[in-house]
Specification:
The protein is mostly beta strands and 260 residues long. Helix content is 4%, strand content 41%. The protein is built from one helix and 17 strands. It has a five-stranded antiparallel beta sheet, with no helix packed on it. A four-stranded antiparallel beta sheet has the order 1-2-3-4, with no helix packed on it. The chain is globular. It starts with 13 loop residues before the first strand and ends with a strand. Keywords: Actin-binding, Cytoplasm, Cytoskeleton, Nucleus, Repeat, WD repeat. GO terms for molecular function: actin filament binding. InterPro entries: ARPC1 (IPR017383), WD40/YVTN_repeat-like_dom_sf (IPR015943), WD40_repeat_dom_sf (IPR036322), WD40_rpt (IPR001680). It is found in: Cytoplasm, Cytoskeleton; Nucleus.
């Protein structure tokens, strides 16, 4: 077992990490608003790695890629199944994707949501993401299932429901595919004494209206994990939230892709 420290050029707190499929390259997102990819190859204990689209020379600690396309803390970062793409979400509500197959070109999309906290690929061109803590009740009152071409990733966060984004390779652009949580319609009613007490305890609020969210998660989603199928052909992914809840989502592979 060997421990080595990658020190340069990071001068800020690292918030997120993800390993490349070859188990040699390491992506890191930091509080200095930057996404970086380093070589973690240790020649004393590992065989020489094959060249990748990110570069062929990989001494330990080598900076293979660096981008400052966002203007916020990088909360989450993720490689695609092929390893030729990396996506990250930042505190400025921006989603970015770098494509090594296109000379490290970076596509970015500024969303209208609160900051996204987590992101993962569910196909080579599709992502799922989610929003961070601090969302107000009602931010995610309704939505429609997302659709995307074969390939994508899902970010999530403050809005209490996962969201679908797709990468259009021909245009080198990211597009929003929709929110994936379809809440049930519920009739408006006043709060019971118990619910008012719970609001005071949890939210420091005594609103007389029922402020319960209609989404599956009642607080920010903090993590997304691919459950079955891998990042290239995900058939199920799992979301966990700050409400203590865990939800499993089915990905039905059709043409186009549908998540429900």
């Amino acid at each position: 077992w060997v421990c080595k420290h990658i020190k340069k050029p990071i001068r800020s707190t690292v918030l997120s990490l993800d390993w490349h499929p070859n188990n040699v390259l390491l992506a890191a997102g930091s509080c200095d608003f930057k996404c970086r990819i380093f070589s973690a190859y240790i020649k004393e204990v590992e065989e020489r790695p094959s060249p990748t689209p990110w570069g062929s020379k990989m001494p330990f600690g080598e900076l293979m890629f660096e981008s400052s396309s966002s203007c916020g803390w990088v909360h989450s970062i993720c490689f695609s199944a092929s390893g030729s793409r990396v996506a990250w979400v930042s505190h400025d509500s921006t989603l970015c994707l770098a494509d090594a197959g296109k000379k490290m070109a970076v596509a970015s999309l500024c969303t209208e949501t609160l900051p996204l906290l987590a992101v993962t690929f569910i196909t080579e061109n599709s992502l799922v993401a989610a929003v961070s803590p601090g969302a107000r009740a009602g931010r995610c009152a309704w939505s429609r299932p997302g659709h995307a071409e074969q390939g994508g990733f899902v970010p999530q966060g403050h809005d209490c429901c996962p969201m679908l984004f797709t990468y259009e390779e021909s245009q080198g652009a990211l597009t929003f595919g929709g929110k994936l949580d379809v809440p049930k319609q519920s009739s408006q009613r006043g709060l019971t004494a118990r619910e008012r007490f719970q609001n005071l305890d949890k939210k420091a609020s005594s609103d007389t209206a029922n402020a319960t969210l209609d989404t599956l998660h009642k607080n920010s989603i903090s993590q997304i994990s691919v459950l079955t199928g891998g990042k290239d052909k995900c058939s199920q992914f799992c979301t966990t939230g700050m409400d203590g809840g865990m939800s499993i989502w089915d990905v039905k592979v059709r043409n186009p892709l549908r998540l429900g």
